[in-house]
Amino acid sequence: MPRGISLTEFQKGQAIAYINDGKTILEITGRQNHKDYIKQLETELLPYGSDWGGENWIHQQDGASIHSAQGVKKWFDDNNVQVFPWPAKSPDLNIVENVWAMLVERVYGQGRQYENVKELHESLDSVWNTFCQKDIQNLYDSMPNRVFELIQAGGKKPSY
């Protein structure tokens, strides 16, 4: 199974996040600020980072404002966590985002709606457990072509 953090908003400020080592699920309720994010990093990221990547792993995140707050940047520095440089408004080549889009499509397919967070959580868990490794491998295999298209498009969003 792929490893990464995926997050979706549900109703006003509630969210469910998957820290994907194939079995770890983290549910977040309410809005997060940078201090909440730091607590999440301390309890979820640090314990798993070395298990996943040994000594030389790199954390990747999107450009959400809580991710780029000065306190968060300081926390990364203080904890020797390398963060993958992700330019603002860059074309999205993040495979985790592509996996998340596939997951959302399967969870919300045919207009499916959920009555509550628990029901959504159960559906996400069920769909995640049926995810095919081939789907993920196809995304990795497509990366050379994606990068080539990005270069050909002069850094603008390619057609993929």
Automatic annotation (TrEMBL):
Pfam families assigned: DDE_3
Tree of life domain: Eukaryota
Coiled-coil annotated spans: none
Tc1-like transposase DDE domain: residues covered: 23-120
A GO MF label: nucleic acid binding
Protein name as annotated: Transposable element Tc3 transposase
Origin species: Araneus ventricosus
Taxonomic lineage from the root: Eukaryota, Metazoa, Ecdysozoa, Arthropoda, Chelicerata
